[in-house]
What we know:
The protein has 239 residues and is α/β, with parallel strands linked by helices. The protein has a single domain, classed as Rossmann fold, CATH 3.40.50.880. Helix content is 26%, strand content 28%. The protein contains 6 helices and 9 strands. A 9-stranded mixed β-sheet has the order 2-1-3-4-9-8-7-5-6, with helices on both faces. The longest helix is centred in the last third of the chain and has 18 residues, at 211-228. The chain is globular.
Amino acid sequence: MLRVHVLQHVPFEGLGSIEPWLLARRAEINYTRFFEESWTLPNPTDFDLIIAMGGPMSVNDEATLSWLAPEKAFLASAIRQGVRVLGICLGAQLIASALGAVVRPNPVREIGWFELTAEPTPANTFAFPPVATVFHWHGETFDLPPDAIRLARSAVCENQAFQLGENVIGLQFHLETTPTSAAALVEHCADELDATQPYVQSAASLRAMPEAAYASINGLMGAVLSHLLSHSTRPQVSP
């Protein structure tokens, strides 16, 4: 059985299309929900895959969010022990921070559907399509962790995706987004939709996206998961 542990930071940013993909493969899914007072972190080696989800907070808010430091330590431990780890948006920033990289404000917010450009990558790394339109919702960015390989960039954000060894992938953007989860983001984070910013789309534009756009990114999310889970052993990666 595929054992998966999810690190969830806010109720409205869940697994999206990842959940049915995992359930179709009979995965057992467990959660640490940091928005609940009773949150706990398990032994990372009890799981085949750890997924760190998104959220509107900053990884630099350790003074006000007491769970950030333990979560980073948990991720660093998981990576050091070769557990497969996927980080999405805030989750990718958490991986970067846990491994000593700087997370800082991006020059501009990137919210909406914008193009992603793949980087040339060596063997055993995930290869994105040369150009893909994906869903973004972020105001910060990260430096690449040591030894990580950049997989993709966008016009206004240099580090959009990275891979570290064979067991860690970080995505600044959201391939798991469904029409329902996009609507939840619009509802809960509407204050971030500043129409004066060039790379922030309006709520109306976000709501108008056809289902085919979501199907396309969800398919790409499945390809990322398949790649990450394709190795039967746990390679050791030093953070």
